Amino acid sequence: MAKVTLTLTDGPGGVLVDLQSDEPLPEDNTGGGTVAQNLALIALHIVQREFKDITGKELVPISVH
């Protein structure tokens, strides 16, 4: 069971994204990961999509940890 934290913070010229997990995150396009990790990634995708739909602007992460 992974404990996952997704934090979005206003930053200069974008958004600071901090995605932390006490278990290793899955590599890109390899599948896997825990349910909590996958839900955090889905939530981040939905936030980006909805931000663009509502504001017409891209939500650009300037730092992802």
Structure description:
With 65 residues, this protein is α+β, with helices and mostly antiparallel strands. It has one domain. It is 32% helix and 31% strand. The chain contains one helix and three strands, in the order ββαβ. The protein has a three-stranded mixed sheet with strand order 1-2-3, with helices on one face.
Category from helices, strands and their pairing: alpha+beta
Rg, alpha carbons: 13 Å
Shape: globular
> What percentage of the residues does DSSP assign to strands (E)?
25-35%
Largest sheet: 3 strands, mixed
Question: Whole-Å distance between the termini?
Answer: 20 Å
Domain unit count = 1
How many helical elements?
1
Strand order of the largest sheet: 1-2-3
Features of this protein?
1 helix, 65 residues, 32% helix, three-stranded mixed beta sheet, 3 strands, globular, alpha+beta
Q: Could you give the topology of this structure?
A:
Layout: E1 4-11, E2 14-21, H1 35-55, E3 61-64
Parallel strand pairs: 2-3
Antiparallel strand pairs: 1-2
Short structural description:
This protein is of the alpha+beta class and 65 residues long.
